[in-house]
TrEMBL record:
One of its GO terms (molecular function) is kinase activity. Keywords: Kinase, Transferase. Signal peptide: none annotated. Residues 14-290 form the Carbohydrate kinase PfkB domain. Pfam families: PfkB (PF00294). This is Sugar/nucleoside kinase (Ribokinase family). It comes from the Bacteria. PANTHER family: RIBOKINASE, SUGAR KINASE.
């Protein structure tokens, strides 16, 4: 496989537009409800497949019906899920997302089987043999905070594999663990809040440069409607977001990662890959769920 996404797998149940939670037994009629494959590994994998990039995903789901559903959705989208292990007796991670009219997304979440993912669940050969390995949600996969996993990443990098990393949460207590991965990562792609918490910096530019000093070739901080900030040894570059109507911001970070990785696979430089990431994120923001707008997305790789 060209790309392996490794980490968090979640079933998202999304509904829009939700202005309030009904009181008592009341019912509000909505325009749309969807179920999607999400999470920093699964969501990115689905977007990569939509871009025409061969991709396999590795992680853990429960032995329940939600796990069946998640794997079915990913397979239908073109992702190789043979590296996703089933954990009998555990629940598949899931979120309920009531999407506000402005695209905001509060959530109700069960972390489920992701918390039990460990090095023993992984196919080491797939990791070391991939062109790119995307670490999705290392802040929430505590079983991989393991020196032997770090050694596997170092081995893979030594063989030419590129390592990218995105986070799942905005929980300050989880940031130190995620930070320990930085010496083994080529490209870090946090959002602004995550970058500030990981670095302890007061501003996003200072945060990006501080994280860059810990090992990555580049740090790309997503800034929502303000676009993204790229930090490399050559300095700082800002990329604006595309001006599109926003339906739902769920999965935009995963889409940015997928576009960036696809750009790297295509031989683009960091800025060119980030521009593709920006375009893919804009596509996803225009619909409901982390896989919205992916039909025809492969054309973005050819047109940008």
């Amino acid at each position: 496989m060209t790309v392996v996404t490794l980490g968090v797998h979640i079933v998202d149940v999304l509904a829009r537009p939700v202005e309030s939670i009904p009181a008592g037994q009341d019912t509000h009629l909505l325009e749309q409800i969807r179920v999607t494959a999400a999470g920093a590994a699964a969501g990115t994998a689905v977007c990569l497949a939509g871009l025409g990039v061969p991709v396999a995903s590795m992680g853990a789901v429960g032995g329940d019906e939600l796990g069946d559903l998640l794997l079915m959705i990913m397979e239908r989208r073109g992702v190789d899920v043979t590296g996703v292990v089933r954990k009998d007796g555990e629940q598949t991670a899931a979120s309920i997302l009531p999407i506000r009219p402005d695209g905001g997304r509060p959530s109700f979440h069960v972390p489920g089987a992701n918390l039990g993912l460990s090095l023993a669940d992984l196919d080491r050969g797939r990791v070391s043999g991939a062109r790119v390995v995307h670490l999705g949600g290392m802040d929430a996969t505590w079983g991989l905070h393991d020196p032997d996993f770090f050694a596997l990443l170092a081995e893979a990098r030594g063989a030419g594999t590129v390592i990218t990393m995105d986070l799942l949460s905005n929980m300050a207590d989880l940031m130190p663990g995620a930070r320990s991965f930085l010496p083994y990562v080529d490209y870090l792609l946090p959002n602004e809040e995550q970058a500030l918490m990981m670095s302890g910096a007061a501003g996003v530019e200072e945060a990006a440069l501080a994280l860059l000093d810990e090992g990555p070739r580049a740090v790309l901080v997503t800034l929502g409607g303000e676009g993204s900030l790229i930090a490399t040894a050559s300095g700082l570059t800002r990329l604006p977001a595309l001006d599109v109507p926003v339906v739902d911001t769920t999965g935009c970070g995963d889409a940015y990662c997928a576009g960036f990785i696809a750009g790297l696979v295509d031989g683009r430089d960091v800025t060119g890959a980030a521009e593709l990431g920006t375009a893919v994120a804009a596509r996803v923001a225009g619909g409901l769920g982390s896989d919205a707008g992916l039909d025809g997305a492969q054309e973005l790789r050819e047109s940008r």
